[in-house]
Amino acid sequence: IMHMPFRGRLKLLVASLTAVILLTWLYLLAGNLENGRSLLLSPCLSETPEARVLERAVLESRVREMEEENRQIRLQLNQLQGTAGQPADGGNYGNAAWGASADTGPEDVENTAEERANHTECPRSPTVLKCELIHVACVCAGHNASRDVVTLVKSILFHRKNPLHFHFITDAVANQILSSLFQSWMVPSVQVSFYDADELKSEVSWIPNKHYSGIYGLMKLTLTKALPSDLTKVIVLDTDITFATDIAELWAIFRKFTDKQVIGLVENQSDWYLGNLWKNHKPWPALGRGFNTGVILLYLERLRRIGWEQMWRLTAERELMSMLSTSLADQDIFNAFIKQNPVLVHQLPCFWNVQLSDHTRSEQCYTEVSDLKVIHWNSPKKLRVKNKHVEFFRNLYLTFLEYDGNLLRRELFGCPSHATSESVQLQGALEELDEDDQCYDFRRERITVHRVHLYFLQYEYTPTGDDTDVTLVAQLSMDRLQMLEAICKHWEGPISLALYMSDAEAQQFLRYAQASEVLKNRKNVGYHIVYKEGQFYPVNLVRNVALRNANTPYVFLADVDFLPMYGLYDYLRKSVVQLDMANTKKALVVPAFETLRYRLSFPKSKAELLSMLDMGTLYTFRYHVWTKGHAPTNYAKWRTATTPYKVEWEADFEPYVVVKRDCPEYDQRFVGFGWNKVSHIMELDAQEYDLMVLPNAFMIHMPHAPSFDISKFRSSPGYRYCLQTLKEEFHQDLSRKYGAAALKYLTAQRNI
């Protein structure tokens, strides 16, 4: 009877403690529901705890307050039990039992205070092993897609911590562009493989497709056949994807697949597959909203095991009987397949493919910036798509678009990369250089490997049937961009231009070219970007890029600040035939003139040019400052010449010439200002080219501000000393290469 009041108090305390715990969690749950999230669910479902640091801190503070109240109640309870002893009914209300039931659960009595504070922690996400190789596949065809894929690759390289192997299914154009780009990029711990899309066309060409991607939009269906048979899994990406996180996080999701799952996809975020977007809208069958195939996890090994090739074909054949064609290319067939085999798909969280086409539900995939993982520009409008946060997405995309790709040539710490023959050769050349050499920077520039993006814009060229075609070859930087339209108006033939630019400048050039009616309508101009690196302008390296990528039998080696006379293209083609260039070694000299006037009424004939020359409107090129550069052209003879005439080489002669495409390349030791063309003409002469001046051809140099390199030459004694040193070394190399015949160049130089 004496224990009855105590038992009542004990029951009251137990009930109070239970009520407090329950109310605590209800309070926290309700507080989070007000913010649109559930405390119990959001960490597990979102998988982005790092994005909610502030919210977590507030919640932990609330939990600590409630736990302190619970501790005080338990303390009172213990004191009551200590004075009363064992209850008469034999029940056990000791500390251990209370700790287990009220705080940690009976299965984990020994939890520390820190562990108890994290009692809602989700199971740890699967991780990728350090140095584990991640495979990424992409279908890429044409000039524009090749540009897009570079931005995708930059975003992946920026965040990555693992070695990567890119697998590109390409047409001939993309293969040429991307193979030269990656070869010159030389990114450590990155492998690249190419697969010929033409060999796969027969696999999908029978499928009618209305999508703007054409036949290449169906190629992802063939990856189990296209990729190596020993490749077990791969991440497949569209070219219009931008990564905002480490791709290893996506690769890790393969470990979440059940034994039966073979494909990982994000749900489609538009209403396309729900149908009824317009009258008679009839989409392909899909599971619910369907899935978007811009980001795919393909478990290749399992797909091959279940007979994927036959399964997708049967699905496509069956549906095409009623649908007649695909509207969304491979995506329609993937969805029809999944509709029949839902157990095979692993649904990825939607932030792995935030789809920015018009009228999507993409905004439900993120509440904060850090929720974003992958952005997919899957509207034909691309960056002009309508989205409330499109400015943020556009800025993120532009960050990688204009990001200096040279900064991504970084080693992965702790992951040894396989050294290529090119990198070994480069390292050997670097070790041979003497860093104390006064001209070290010049020598270093000669062996610098610059990233090169060939055919940056759309290019189309149809060879002429007579093998007389001539390409104008030139190089330029951003400060000569304004010359392009005028050159295109003066020269209707093919042009090969190498542009020395930074990543950001290349994008400015792209916008300039796309806004110009003149440049937009010229498809026979090849624009090749050589990306900036180092302190010098590698003028001869840039020239060589333009020269190597000319596609005609003959090349006109010009400079971009010259305008050729109207009709020069046709005149040169006739001269090639008349002078039997196919069977002889000739360099056809196009006489060079200049004007000091920014507004010039361009002469339409030789007679008009001679009149302007007599009036002082025009001058022979560099007559005032560097007469020797063009004096051997013999302008006095040219005035009355009616047939081509031969001239002899003289020291410092640097004319603009037409030669066969397989002529010697420019010597790349000469950078910036000085001797870059002189050395080339010298080598042509050493190879016994006849220098023939054309009597009815001319070009005019337009005025511009002095280049930065000529300013350095004029102001820096060290620059001039190193240029002289390089000249002497060039003479020595010429003597070793051509023997006694090259002695005249050394003698001529000493007589200057």
Automatic annotation (TrEMBL):
<dbReference type="GO" id="GO:0046872">
    <property type="term" value="F:metal ion binding"/>
</dbReference>
<dbReference type="InterPro" id="IPR051292">
    <property type="entry name" value="Xyl/GlcA_transferase"/>
</dbReference>
<dbReference type="GO" id="GO:0015020">
    <property type="term" value="F:glucuronosyltransferase activity"/>
</dbReference>
<keyword id="KW-0333">Golgi apparatus</keyword>
<comment type="function">
    <text>Bifunctional glycosyltransferase with both alpha-1,3-xylosyltransferase and beta-1,3-glucuronyltransferase activities involved in the maturation of alpha-dystroglycan (DAG1) by glycosylation leading to DAG1 binding to laminin G-like domain-containing extracellular proteins with high affinity and in a phosphorylated-O-mannosyl trisaccharide dependent manner. Elongates the glucuronyl-beta-1,4-xylose-beta disaccharide primer structure by adding repeating units [-3-Xylose-alpha-1,3-GlcA-beta-1-] to produce a heteropolysaccharide. Supports the maturation of DAG1 more effectively than LARGE1.</text>
</comment>
<dbReference type="InterPro" id="IPR029044">
    <property type="entry name" value="Nucleotide-diphossugar_trans"/>
</dbReference>
<keyword id="KW-0472">Membrane</keyword>
<protein>
    <submittedName>
        <fullName>LARGE xylosyl- and glucuronyltransferase 2</fullName>
    </submittedName>
</protein>
<keyword id="KW-0479">Metal-binding</keyword>
<dbReference type="GO" id="GO:0035269">
    <property type="term" value="P:protein O-linked glycosylation via mannose"/>
</dbReference>
<dbReference type="GO" id="GO:0000139">
    <property type="term" value="C:Golgi membrane"/>
</dbReference>
<comment type="similarity">
    <text>In the N-terminal section; belongs to the glycosyltransferase 8 family.</text>
</comment>
<dbReference type="Pfam" id="PF01501">
    <property type="entry name" value="Glyco_transf_8"/>
</dbReference>
<comment type="pathway">
    <text>Protein modification; protein glycosylation.</text>
</comment>
<keyword id="KW-0812">Transmembrane</keyword>
<dbReference type="GO" id="GO:0042285">
    <property type="term" value="F:xylosyltransferase activity"/>
</dbReference>
<keyword id="KW-0325">Glycoprotein</keyword>
<keyword id="KW-0735">Signal-anchor</keyword>
<dbReference type="InterPro" id="IPR002495">
    <property type="entry name" value="Glyco_trans_8"/>
</dbReference>
<keyword id="KW-0175">Coiled coil</keyword>
<keyword id="KW-0464">Manganese</keyword>
<feature type="coiled-coil region">
    <location>
        <begin position="56"/>
        <end position="83"/>
    </location>
</feature>
<dbReference type="Pfam" id="PF13896">
    <property type="entry name" value="Glyco_transf_49"/>
</dbReference>
<keyword id="KW-1133">Transmembrane helix</keyword>
<keyword id="KW-0808">Transferase</keyword>
<comment type="similarity">
    <text>In the C-terminal section; belongs to the glycosyltransferase 49 family.</text>
</comment>
<keyword id="KW-0511">Multifunctional enzyme</keyword>
<keyword id="KW-0328">Glycosyltransferase</keyword>
